[in-house]
Design brief:
Elements (H helix, E strand, L loop, with lengths): L16 E2 L2 E2 L1 H16 L16 H5 L1 H5 L5 H23 L4 E5 L6 H4 L8 E6 L1 H13 L8 E5 L7 H7 L9 E4 L8 H12 L5 E7 L7 H16 L10 H10 L4 E5 L1 H9 L12 E7 L1
Parallel strand pairs: 3-4, 3-6, 4-5, 6-7
Antiparallel strand pairs: 1-2, 7-9, 8-9
């Protein structure tokens, strides 16, 4: 992709940091991963570093956040999407992939836990430079080390493309790779989503896992107002939801990029696969999806 392509106005990672401050969305996702370790014992997704990497303000608010049971479905979804991604990643690595790209990483900890480093698997974290400086400060404050298998790939999307930033960091564009792209797609325009998928599709034996949101009109009337209120709160803090996909539309987009193995899990499928006894009082139906797609 060129620096002037459709990814530039709504880049894959730019939402994480605005005006030098991490986004509430990024901090919230990290908090939910941490709370899942305590309240549900990491039953869906185990992340022993989730709490350690939090900033002091977020860590101090964990009990208050955890007390809001209305956010429990979202917390379980965040755990499930990480589990789904890392399970898919493991399958890709078993088939020979040695490059993992984490797009818009925020406080994701895979690169610090990388259990495949001994196999030569490198983890490339793509974010805006200021985001990565923030994360590296958090890693240092937590007393954690930056492992040799971790490669920070800072990309200022106003000046360069994803391909350029990754190549500069040592990513091999002609070798297979797995892309983790969680908690980002709803904040991008559809053109930006399409452009990023085009880039991924040009990497040999590429695979990607991401999540997306269904249109408001897909929700039953009794749930629609609540979802729209959540979107309004995100917009009020400068993080509006910009893209929504009907599952059929998303499938057609992936097929147009020549992805030929596609799995799309809605809330019912996610609950069946991962929640077990935790699915109590979880309202199923339209909502967020997680998807894996392979070339």
């Amino acid at each position: 992709m060129s620096s002037g392509d459709a990814t530039s106005p709504a880049p894959v990672a730019e939402i994480i940091m605005r005006d030098g401050q991490p986004s509430q969305t990024a901090q919230g996702a990290a908090a939910y991963r941490a709370i899942h370790q305590d309240l549900e014992g990491g039953a869906i997704f185990k992340d022993p570093l989730a709490s350690r990497i939090l900033d002091q303000e977020t860590a101090a608010a964990l009990n208050e956040i955890a007390a809001n049971d209305a956010m429990r479905p979202w917390r379980l979804f965040i755990a499930a999407r990480s589990r789904f991604s890392e399970d898919t990643m493991g399958d890709c690595i078993a088939s020979g992939v040695r490059q993992v790209v984490v797009l818009g990483a925020g406080l994701d900890t895979f690169s610090l836990r990388n259990p495949y480093a001994h196999l030569g698997v490198r983890a490339f974290e793509v974010d805006h430079p200021s985001t990565q400086n923030w994360k590296r400060d958090r890693i240092k404050a937590a007393g954690l080390a930056e492992p040799p298998s971790l490669v920070f790939a800072p990309v200022d999307f106003e000046r360069e493309s994803l391909a350029e930033g990754l190549a500069r960091a040592g990513f091999k564009l002609n070798e297979p790779a797995f892309f983790q792209w969680l908690g980002v797609v709803p904040y991008l325009t559809k053109d930006a989503v399409s452009s990023t998928l085009t880039f991924i599709s040009e990497v040999p034996r590429a695979a990607v896992v991401f999540d997306y949101a269904e249109p408001f009109e897909n929700y039953p009337v009794e749930r629609r107002a609540g979802v729209m209120a959540t979107a309004a709160r995100a917009a009020s803090r400068g993080e509006p939801w910009l893209s929504f996909f009907d599952p059929i539309e998303l499938l057609q987009l992936l097929r147009s990029k020549a992805f030929d193995v596609i799995e799309d899990l809605g809330l019912s499928e996610i609950a069946d696969r991962y929640y077990g006894v935790l699915r109590r009082n979880i309202v199923l139906g339209p909502g967020p999806h997680i998807v894996r797609a392979h070339r």
